[in-house]
Amino acid sequence: MEKQEEEVQQQQQQQQQQQQPDKNNKETITWDVAEYGGYLFDKKLKAHNPLNHQMPLQYHHSQSTPHIPSSLSTSSTTSIKKPSSSLSDDESGGSSSSTPHSSNTPRKQFSFDDHCALILANQKLPKKLVDYFWDKCSVRICADGGANRLYSLGTKINQSSRWIPDYIKGDLDSLHEGVSDFFSKKGSSIVLDSSQDTSDLQKCFELIIDLEKGSGIKYRKIFILGGLGGSFSHEFANVNTLFDHPGRKIILASKDNLAWLLSSTYNHNIICRSETKCSLIPLSSKASQVTTSGLKWNLVKQSLNFGELISTSNVSLDNKVCVETSNPLIFIVDINP
């Protein structure tokens, strides 16, 4: 009798275990270093292959950039300077419509299911990365002084009208008046948000959320050029933004590095080429268990923590790196070694 009871209990335990979800059975997210412009600066790769192993971001034509919701204009902390309707087509860069636009050519955007956005921060902007992402994002936003950087980049090559952002947003304490007037006449919307409780980058994300509400579009992939480098405090503020929006793919980019957040909610596959230098940084908290494959120095249920071990200057051995983590990690790629 006791043996039968034990067998019944074992069967019940097995059934309960089968009914419980597998905690390790996480959805896998794929990240692509080449897609994010990771090898644009690789001189050796250029010499080896004229195609540069750079997978072009696919895009298609669309009608226009989404209008900014009218609710923003009534905000106590936000005001919008719209382009003048009296401008000629030549002065405004196209038709006299109030919809922001940057050229007479049809707007291009990602052919992925979710649209992509480009934010330009107030740091040095590599021309190669600006060129690479510009026509491939469905909306382009300058974070305050990022407009000065974009204008300077255009005038440096005697093409000041080459890149016209759809929006410029921030407290506008860094935006030069001449730059503001120039872009406004060319069709950019200037959005003032005087709040000192959020950074200019956070203000740009608030704008993206408002654009989503007004259009039904979801910008799950956002590229931030100038998001790394420069002021160390600003760099930390930019990295903190990754944790504010864990449901989106947000890529911080500079001429030296790419960085993004590996959430503990998912497993992660990073598509890359061999000998790509990378690091895994437990910035927000201790990562008690990290397991990787595809690296020269793999981790097996390894704890990563500041003051203890962190994984820096690791190297990929093949074209894919897999990461499982119990806590969020910042994944950093050296793109200009």
Please describe what this structure looks like.
The strands form three sheets. Strands 3-8-7-6-5-9-10-11-18-13-16 form an eleven-stranded mixed β-sheet, sandwiched between helices. It has a five-stranded mixed β-sheet with strand order 1-12-17-14-15, with no helix packed on it. It has a two-stranded antiparallel ribbon with strand order 2-4. Residues 17-23, 46-64, 69-77 and 82-113 have low confidence and may be disordered. The protein has helices spanning 2-19, 43-48, 89-92, 127-134, 146-156, 177-185, 200-215, 232-244; strands spanning 28-32, 59-62, 78-81, 107-110, 115-120, 139-143, 167-170, 189-193, 219-225, 249-253, 257-262, 267-271, 277-281, 287-293, 302-304, 311-315, 320-325, 329-334. With 337 residues, the protein is an alpha/beta fold. It folds into two domains: 25-41 and 256-337, Sandwich (Jelly Rolls), CATH 2.60.120; 58-254, Thiamin pyrophosphokinase, catalytic domain (Rossmann fold, 3-Layer(aba) Sandwich), CATH 3.40.50.10240.
